[in-house]
Amino acid sequence: MYDYLIVGSGLFGITFARQAHDCGKSCLVIDKRPHSGGNIYCRETEGINVHTYGPHIFHTSNRSVWDFVSSLVEFNRYTNQPVAVYKGRLFNLPFNMNTFHALWGVKTPAEARAKIEEQRREAGITEPRNLEEQAVCLVGRDIYEILIKEYTEKQWGRKCCELPAFIIRRLPVRFTFDNNYFNDLFQGVPTGGYNRLTDALLSGIECRCNTDFFENRPYFEGLAERIVFTGKIDEYYGYRFGRLEYRSVRFETETLDTDNYQGNAIVNYTSAEVPYTRIIEHKHFEFGTQPHSIISREYSSEWAEGAEAFYPVNDEKNNALYRRYRELALREPRVIFGGRLAEYKYYDMDKVIESAMQAHGAI
Ligand code: UDP
User: Fold this and answer.
1) Same domain assignment for residues 27 and 88
2) What is the pLDDT of residues 163-217, one digit of tens each?
3) Residue 125: inside a domain, yes or no?
4) 125-172 pLDDT, tens per residue?
5) Is residue 32 part of a domain?
């Protein structure tokens, strides 16, 4: 018998396992994939760490989370500064004075604010009720049309007026010439790649890959006193109230005979004409100097059985369904549900770690 069976070796599961192990608890981590690390896993190809499940940039303002991860691995100085391409024009992200200047020719914060205020007034929105209204309120109609609307509809497969406002509030809006995508105090990518972080979190802990909890549920449930479940909560309950919706992403990856394809780790393609949402050039996360480069085009689609679930669709309908599953979960003291899929939450990595630390501290 183990103290904990941890289903899923993503950040929630392995942070929890690390904490429990360090407190003298025995843990078994299982994962249905052939590797550990969940979506932070990188596949090393020709000397480049390829972010197999999409770009991951660690950022946090929580000093204890930063101290925790920094005690395990070193972080480099990578700062995320994605750019967006719309019909041949290039703009800086997040929305800041560089973006406003490129779009409107404005040079001062006062001019930019006046432009946005004018467009917000024209739209007549006082209380934004959805992503579209929230975006127009924050940055005006022009930026909404060029940099948000079509990109968001590609990524989420839903109209902006049907999506929750909080999704667009993830992005800073700044009246300074600052292209840093995040406002957090600390930011970087582990030197040598994310697998080093996974390995450090799992050090000394038994982890079995290619092991699917649902293939032999009674056996696994009998292995430990308590279970930490990080998979899809609706699957855990046999979809008894119906299925939660998720978005999936797929990547077309190729090696190029150039040392620098796009000059940046992430370039978003915000127009509907381009079928992918963004191109990731992996070497730039680690300032790679290889003579070649690897890029991935990212395509978004609705999740279907057999694909990987990436993003919860936190609209009202799905949130209401999630709450029904959550009710069941609350009545199950032996099981801890955590992470993006089990909590049906659009979590960043630092928040997942924070939540796993809290879940462990609470028991
Ligand atoms: N977004 C956008 N245009 C962009 C980048 C982002 O409209 O060029 C919107 C989009 O709705 C997205 C949200 O902002 O879902 C949050 O973006 P973020 O970069 O945080 O998404 P993630 O990195 O988690 O995929």
Assistant:
1) no
2) 999 999 999 999 999 999 999 999 999 999 999 999 999 999 999 999 999 999 9
3) yes
4) 989 999 999 999 999 999 999 999 999 999 999 999 999 999 999 999
5) yes
Q: What is the pTM of this model?
A: 0.96
Domain with residue 337: its CATH number is 3.40.50.720
Amino acid letter, residue 74: E
Q: Is 269 helix (H, G, I), strand (E, B) or coil?
A: strand
Tokens read off for 123: 């739209």
Tally Cβ neighbours within 10 Å of residue 335: 18
Pair 144, 16 in one domain? no
In 3D space, the residue among 310, 3, 348, 4 whose CA is nearest the CA of residue 181 turns out to be 348
Which residue is closest in CA terms to ligand 1's atom 2? 148
SS3 content of the chain, % helix, strand, coil (to 5): 35, 20, 40
Whether 168 is in the pocket of ligand 1, judged by its Cβ within 6 Å, is: yes
Kind of pairing, strands 266-269 and 278-281? antiparallel
| Separation of CA 128 and ligand 1 centre (Å) | 18
Are 70 and 91 in a shared domain?
Answer: no
Residue 39 has pLDDT above 90, yes or no: yes
Rounded to the nearest 10 degrees, the angle between the axes of helix 109-123 and helix 131-143 is: 130
Which of 57, 92, 143, 152 for a ligand 1 pocket mutation test, highest count of atoms within 8 Å of Cβ?
152
Is 138 a pocket residue for ligand 1 (Cβ < 6 Å)? no
User: Total domain count for the chain?
Assistant: 2
